Amino acid sequence: MRIGIVCYPTVGGSGVVATEMAMALAARNHDVHLLSYDRPGRLRGGIPGLRFHEVAVSAYPLFRYPPYDLALATRMLEVREEAKVDLFHVHYAIPHAVSAFLARSMCGGCLKFVTTLHGTDITVVGSDRAYLRPTRFALEQSDAVTAVSRYLADETLLMFGVKKGVDVVHNFVDTQRFQPSDHKPWHQRADEERIIVHASNFRPVKRVGDIVRAFAEIQREMPARLLLVGDGPDREHALAVAADLGCRHRVEHLGMRDDLEQVLPTADLFLSASQTESFGLSMLEAMSCGVPCVSTAVGGVAEVIGDTGSLVPLGEPDMMAKSAIAILSDADRHTQLSQNARQRAIDCFSTDRIVTQYEAIYERVLS
Ligand code: GMT
């Protein structure tokens, strides 16, 4: 098939999933065209069958807000004409689904598009009055709509009242790239230091302050170090909380990393304190590396981690700490969870399994 993939290039989950999809589809001999306003961080160069198309937006002085959605619609049409793309798959509804609809209307229905919902496009942004109606309209116009969890599919039907069916297609992980290393867990190391990791875009929704609060409790009970991976608006706040709680010297901010598969296998535990999380891709990547997760019980997280980790109530860092301490003081339980996490990633969320589901949707749409 000739497939156009549209995404945000930033280090958010949707851009990562879309880019990994583009690479996986190219590896399956599809002709793939990736469109975004910048080159996505996860995109490796020189992949046969995969081309990146930048969407340029002119900065005309009259435009306080340059109309990216129009530039994208035009670029989609150009790519369609140049490469004879059969279908576009847009990741994140706003504004990508609206641009796809516009592109299709401009060419009299010459193209089909599938929209994948990732989370905040529905739970936060899409429910803003300014975006709700065009988003609902574009979802109804999509040839297929998918959501990355059952939770998100249900939320979409509830909040948007769309009449269209929403297919659930979970996110996936490259289980070869994200795999356990020969790094030993704490109970086989002389210093017994527990390595705890959190990776996110440090937006308020991630509640990184709660991660640090939980960690402050943990390191009172056992030797421990917290690795914070990623960056975003709440980074300074998180580090200030660590300083206030007297554990700043045990918290390392690693910043943005494009070698997460090297960092995650060194951890004994992954923490997530999000207020909402439609899926939780970095948790899946941690699981694939054999790292158990303790997370707030929100959104679609339970669908991801199953019983390979622990779920705790939102906004209760003490309970998160207790749960983490229980896992980090029981070597046998930790070993079991770690093996289960890796196995669950392989059994339920491998690239092959999930990309096959998307291919079936493309075939249905094109038939
Ligand atoms: O909120 C983010 O972290 C970014 C956002 C995105 O679209 O880039 O992430 C959402 O999509 C990810 C990939 O499907 C999911 O793993 C995240 O759970 C989801 N974020 C939220 O629901 C808050």
Structural description of this entry:
By secondary structure, the protein is α/β, with parallel strands linked by helices. It folds into two domains: 2-172 and 350-366, 3-Layer(aba) Sandwich (Rossmann fold), CATH 3.40.50; 186-349, Glycogen Phosphorylase B (Rossmann fold, 3-Layer(aba) Sandwich), CATH 3.40.50.2000. It has 14 helices and 13 strands. A seven-stranded parallel sheet has the order 3-2-1-4-5-6-7, sandwiched between helices. It starts with a strand and ends with a helix.
Number of helices: 14
Structure summary, number of beta strands = 13
The proportion of residues forming helix, as a percent range, comes to 40-55%
Number of domains: 2
- Largest sheet entry: 7 strands, parallel
Spans where pLDDT lies below 50 across 5 or more residues: none
Structural category is alpha/beta
Mean pLDDT: 95
Strand neighbour order, sheet with most strands: 3-2-1-4-5-6-7
Alpha carbon gap, first and last residue:
12 Å
CATH architecture of the largest domain: 3-Layer(aba) Sandwich
Q: Write down the secondary-structure element order.
A: EHEEHEHEHHEHEEHEHEHEHEHEHHH
Summarize, please.
This protein is of the alpha/beta class. It is 43% helix and 17% strand.
Characteristic terms for this protein:
2 domains, six-stranded parallel sheet, globular, seven-stranded parallel sheet, Rossmann fold, alpha/beta, 13 strands, 367 residues, binds ligand GMT
